[in-house]
Amino acid sequence: GIQVEQSPPDLILQEGANSTLRCNFSDSVNNLQWFHQNPWGQLINLFYIPSGTKQNGRLSATTVATERYSLLYISSSQTTDSGVYFCAVGTHNYGQNFVFGPGTRLSVLP
Amino acid sequence: DAGVIQSPRHEVTEMGQEVTLRCKPISGHNSLFWYRQTMMRGLELLIYFNNNVPIDDSGMPEDRFSAKMPNASFSTLKIQPSEPRDSAVYFCASSLHYSNQPQHFGDGTRLSIL
């Protein structure tokens, strides 16, 4: 199945700083999503982005499918951005090939 | 609009007992997914349905696990008999289509098997 790597595994920021999270995957995909798991355990869908660039407020994401990576940008970080960010990818053969990465744990300090 | 609704939020039971987790997807969504999250293995897709039909259950760990979707607004995940290693957070998610639409997650069921 597809392998998904995320970097960095952990990130600590001061409020107001910017950050870039990376997701690498080992095969071609037709489905890529970014999620935020908040400290209460809720999983929130941030982006469905199999290719191209999208923006939503302070967050934006870019997927370069041909080079098998995606980036999540967080600008002007806030304490409420803390939590774990997951990248998940899938292929036309969905099943076990829809795989979550291990996540990046972000802590934003006041 | 109501999101994905899971019940119960917490379940504590003794090993050997049957456990039933419930999920109500977002109205109008055609696909439903069951996931399990543990510290050791992260988030794993167990099974997913499209139009109430199971499409792929290759992620279901053992025959002790079963899932059904009798109608578009309800799904269950059963574990019988339960074992301590089944302790995890179980999430349900739904989407308009399983391959090319964003998934929206419920708040999860935290299951502890003693």
Quickly give the structural class of chain A: mainly beta
> What percent of residues of chain B adopt helix (DSSP H or I)?
under 10%
Question: Helix count of chain A?
Answer: 0
Sheet with the most strands of chain B? 7 strands, mixed
Q: Which two chains form the greatest contact, residue counts included?
A: A-B, 24 and 22 residues
Mean pLDDT of chain A: 94
What is the count of helical runs of chain B? Answer: 0
- Shape assignment of chain A: globular
State Rg of chain A.
13 Å
Radius of gyration of chain B: 13 Å
The first-to-last residue Cα distance of chain A is: 40 Å
Percentage of β-strand residues of chain A: over 45%
Strands of chain A, total number:
11
Low-confidence stretches of chain B: none
SSE order of chain B: EEEEEEEEEEE
Order of helices and strands of chain A: EEEEEEEEEEE
Say how many strands of chain B there are.
Answer: 11
Separation of the first and last Cα atoms of chain B:
37 Å
Tell me the overall shape of chain B.
globular
The biggest beta sheet of chain A reads: 6 strands, mixed
Model description:
- The complex is a heterodimer of chains A (110) and B (114).
- By secondary structure, chain A is mostly beta strands.
- Chain A is built from no helices and eleven strands.
- In chain A, strands 2, 4, 5, 9, 10 and 11 form a six-stranded mixed sheet that branches. In chain A, strands 1-3-8-7-6 form a five-stranded antiparallel sheet, with no helix packed on it.
- Chain A is globular.
- The model of chain A has no long low-confidence stretch (mean pLDDT 94).
- The model of chain B has no long low-confidence stretch (mean pLDDT 95).
- Chain B is globular and about 35 Å long.
- Chain B is 0% helix and 54% strand.
- In chain B, strands 2, 4, 5, 6, 9, 10 and 11 form a seven-stranded mixed sheet that branches.
- By secondary structure, chain B is mainly β.
- Chain B is built from no helices and eleven strands.
